[in-house]
Amino acid sequence: MAEPITRRRAMTIMAAAAGLPLIPFAGAALAAAGPVVWKGQALGAPATLVLNHPDRAKAERLVVRVVSEVDRLESVFSLYRKNSALTELNLMGALAAPPGELVALLATCHEAWKTSGGAFDPSVQPLWSLYARHFSKKGSDPAGPSRQQLDETLPLVDFSRVRFNRDRIALPRAGMALTLNGIAQGYITDRVVALLRAEGVTSSLVSMGESRAIGAKADGSPWRIGLGETEDEATPDTVAAIIDRAVATSSASGFHFDTAARFGHILDPRLGSTAPKYRRMTVIAPDATTADAYSTAFSLLEPDAIRAILDFERDISVDLAMVSGDRLRLGRPVDIR
After folding, report:
1. Per-domain boundaries in the chain
2. For residue 197, what is the enclosing H or E element?
3. Which DSSP string corresponds to 66-127?
4. Is 292 annotated as contributing to ligand binding?
5. Residue 175 annotated as lining a ligand binding site
6. CA 244, CA 239: separation in Å to the nearest integer?
7. Which residue from 105, 106, 206, 248 has the least number of CB within 10 angstroms?
8. Are 15 and 24 in contact (CB under 8 A)?
9. Among 51-65, 76-90, 211-225, 283-297, whose mean pLDDT is lowest?
10. pLDDT digits (tens, 9 = 90+) for 115-164
């Protein structure tokens, strides 16, 4: 049986309000007060929030607001909460008066689906479920689901058939289902960034699987984001330096359906295949939602197809590691070492 998803997502906020440095040990008074720390769950994974602020009471109020917002958005996007809006949609096949955030994110998904030629497709969930069911059975065929099973499932994967507006979302065929796991982490990160900016935060790093910087660090230097195949990799293979940018990384090694690690979680919605093209795909973009979606889509595209998209998306950078170990950088130049 495949192991459960354990991909760690840490939401860490090291912020500065009103231009004050809010990093650990930035000053004697601040170090003595210590950061406000929250640890819990976000989108089915462990999450941590660390906020340093000279006014501890204000920091604690801000943490409460952030945690409340993350919890509210999880009640919209989570596949694991029985009462989430997404769970209800997948169960019933339709959702009346959907949350505005869900409609807005589906509109963003549609743009990513169209731009990527269908490589990014939230309706891939039935295919994901097929692989999960197959490998959860004792004595399952190590070669994966049969061709017949794939052929029966693939017609359920077609985002062009999903209908949505502010009044209703509809999945037109029984068995269709959506997953927003390839974009929702970035979206929630962006919402946290918006909340912090509204509170006057001018220097911050927010990370919940995907990272986004508000401005530079307190000393004016860029935030440094380690890039590796897994989020808890002790030694990243490279480091990206960012200011007012977001970083998202996708890697097939993040989760495998089978114990032999042949079938990864990044599924091609057009073919039903799982063979990885890259060891790691990192996208740097102005916001975490875009970075998250494209890191998923680009994981399934050939380099020339990625280049064609970047000819129009000129504010995006890509750093990828091929299965062979070779590295390739595309798009807008960025400080990656």
Report:
1. 85-170
2. helix 184-198
3. HHHHHHHHHHHH-SS-TTSHHHHHHHHSEEES--HHHHHHHHHHHHHHHHTTTSS-GGGHHH
4. yes
5. no
6. 16
7. 106
8. no
9. 51-65
10. 999 999 999 999 999 999 999 998 889 888 999 999 999 999 999 999 99
Is 326 annotated among the ligand-binding residues?
no
The answer to whether 189 touches 246, Cβ cutoff 8 Å, is yes
Nearest to 123 by CA among 97, 151, 95, 86: 86
Q: At residue 244, what is the residue type? A: D
Helix 184-198, helix 288-298: angle, nearest 10: 160
The CA-based angle 326-330-332, given to 5 degrees, is 145
Superfamily assignment of 85-170 in CATH?
A: ApbE-like superfamily (1.10.3980.10)
Contact predicate 2/201, CB 8 Å: no
pTM more than 0.90: no
Beta bridge partners of 51: 36
**Which residues are bridge partners to 251 per DSSP?**
none
End-to-end CA separation in angstroms for the chain:
39
Q: Tell me how far apart the alpha carbons of residues 225 and 92 are, in angstroms, rounded to a whole number.
A: 41
